[in-house]
Structures are given as C-alpha cells and as structure tokens.
Amino acid sequence: MSQLRLDPLTGRWVVISTDRADRPFASFVPRVLPVEADPSRPCPFCPGNEGNTPPEIERADASGRWQVRVLPNLYPAFSGDDPMVVSHLGPVFTQAPASGIHEVLVLSPEHRATWADLSDDHADQVMEVVRERMAAHATRAGLRYSQAIVNAGREAGASLEHPHGQLLGMPFIPSEITSEVAGFARFEGSCLLCTAVDAEESVGYRIVHADDRSVVICPFWSSMPYEMLVIPRRHSAHLHTARPPDSSSVGRTIRVALGALREQLGDVAYNVVFHSAPFRSSAEYHWHVHLLPKVTTTAGFELGTGVMINVVPPEDAANELRPLASAAA
User: Fold this and answer.
1) Residue-wise pLDDT tens digits, 147-187
2) 158: which residues sit within 8 A by CB, 6+ positions away?
3) Which one of 99, 118, 142, 218 is CB 3.0 to 4.6 Å from 314, fit for a cystine?
4) Are 130 and 106 in contact (CB under 8 A)?
5) DSSP category for residue 125
6) pLDDT of the residue at 210
C-alpha cells in the first residue's frame, strides 16, 4: 500500500510506494556513462597540472602538499559585478544579469578518490575551505546566497572524473531555499530540524549514523531511495558562521554516510547539496546537507507534477545503511 508523506521543509508531498519496486526490470541505476568525453586528456585537477588551471583562490595543505584547492570556474554560470537590475522586455519576458561567483572546489589530489575515501582530517579541511569561501561570498555586495554542491558521476551532472565540487554565489535566493525558509516559518514554536533530530532519535527507525555533534537520517519524507539528510546538532542558520567542530563533524559524517551508500549499492552517482540560510537573513533556519543518490529515473509523472515516487521506504534504507555506517565510522 502506497503512502503520501509531507516534506515539512518544502511543503511538497512525496509518494512512498514499495510495490513499484517489484515491477519487471525495476532496478537501481549503476554508473554506466563515462564521466569525461575524452578520458585520455590530462586531468587539469591532478597534481603537476596546476598550470593548466586559472590561478587558485585558496588551498589547504598538509605535509607540504595541497589537499584542497579552490579555482575560478572556466565556464561560470554566474560572473561579474553588475547589480541585479531587472529588465522587462515584454509581458512575459523578464531578465537580469547573472552576476556573481562560480568556483570549483577540488576535493583531493587523488584522481579516483571520493568523499567516502577522505580521512577525517581531510574532510575537516574540505569543510573549513567551504566555510571560508562562503564567508568570503557573504561579504560581496549584491550576493544573497551561495550554493555548495558535489556532483559525483555523469548521471549526477559531473563532467570531470576528478573529485570536485562547486561554489556558486548568486544575486537572488533560489526557490528551493525560499521554500525551506517558509517551511521553518510554518513550524512555529521550535526549530523544524532540531525537532526532527529529537523525534528520530526517540524512535530510532531512520537514524543512519550519529555522533555528539551531527546526525544523519533517511528522512521520513525521503523523495528517492537511500536519500539522507545530515544535520548538525547545534542550531545555526548559516554554514559560514558555524563553529568549526560542528562543520568538521558534518564533513566526517558525510564521509561515513557515503561510504555506507557505496557498500550497499556499489558505485552509484550522487549529489551532495549544502543548504544554508540566505546571507544577512534573520529568519529561522538550520543549515544542513542533502545526500541524494541517483539510482532511479525521474519520469513523466515526477516531471509533470513535481511529486516524487520513492520505492524504498526510508525505514528500510536506514536499516540497511546503519550497520555499514557503523563499520565505516
């Protein structure tokens, strides 16, 4: 029997439908597409090829060797300092300059490493660089939000195999964030995600991993199989002002969760999406991280309605991932 479950962050309904997992030929999608069109081309992110990239903006070193680098994106979606002045070209034609910042976050010097392969110290360095770059974006006049992401695998949007992410500073607040801000506002009396952590720990069904500073759950309202949500325990609206021990714990928890996902499903594509409050916002919010495996295909119903169908109940997903996360911790 299918269920409708409400995502309190966005206000959207999702369908939990275990019967659809039993359809003929229904299976999870492994990585099948090559990430790069020309794998013989020298990797611009590997050590020794630093001269093939624009001058770096920031780096983190260890033992005289870089561990994390931040570079300008050669093909930016957002660039320049023009103010966001809206032009109306007709009754339904509205545009504005796509000003802002678009940076590449190189996660590791190792070409085939993933976040799951990072040491705890290395994961700490990645999170510290993300915090510092977001803090720098917050000082830029005209920027209202920064989005940090990691796309792993062609199916998740990666165009280079070397492990990397992106940091995009933009002059507007994306609708996904405004929906979440509204979700926190609807949840009057306490923080939505603080309450979610307390509720999940009281029942234990959907906890994948937890330490004294962060928790990862398969949320009750999961819209896709093995979706996970990483939540720092300390309430803080902005990632870039979070205390370093809290952001470090989140980075280590991401490593554990992605390691468990790989053990359970193999080498699947996924997205890591960081959500933080808009810059200079005083609205109620709690920063967090979405881990979104790309193991099913979004079809016409989902595209036409915006309602996602999840064929693996989050309770089952968490039960499968929990012992693997314990082994990876």
Assistant:
1) 999 999 888 888 889 999 999 999 999 999 999 999 999 99
2) 35, 151, 152, 164, 269
3) 218
4) no
5) H
6) 97
Say if residue 210 is exposed, middle or buried (CB neighbours under 10 Å; 0-12, 13-18, 19+): buried
The type of residue at 114 is T
Q: Which pair of structure tokens corresponds to residue 158?
A: 């990666």
Nearest to 143 by CA among 75, 79, 74: 79
Beta carbons within 8 Å of 99's beta carbon, 6+ residues apart: 78, 79, 80, 81, 82, 83, 84, 142, 171
Containing H/E element for 272? strand 270-275
Number of Cα atoms under 13 Å in the Cβ half of residue 162: 20
Which domains does the chain carry?
3-27+46-77+96-328 (3.30.428.10)
Residues of the chain with pLDDT under 50: 23-26
Report the distance separating Cα 291 and Cα 47, nearest Å: 28
Euclidean distance between CA atoms 109 and 217, whole angstroms: 30
Token couple for 170: 């933009």
Position of tokens 């409050």?
Answer: 277
Output the pLDDT for position 23.
46
Provide the total of helices (H) and of strands (E) in the chain, helices listed first. Answer: 6, 15
Give the pair of three-digit tokens for residue 33: 């597409």
Q: How many residues does the chain have?
A: 329
Give the position of tokens 């759950």. Answer: 217
CA atoms of 124 and 146, how far apart (whole Å): 20
How far is Cα 242 from Cα 124, in angstroms, rounded to an integer?
13
**DSSP string spanning 23-81?**
STT-------S-S-S-TTSPPTTSTT-GGGSPPPSEEEEETTEEEEEEEE-SS-SS-S-
Distance in angstroms (rounded) separating the CA atoms of residues 159 and 28: 22
Q: How many CB atoms lie within 10 A of CB 115?
A: 23
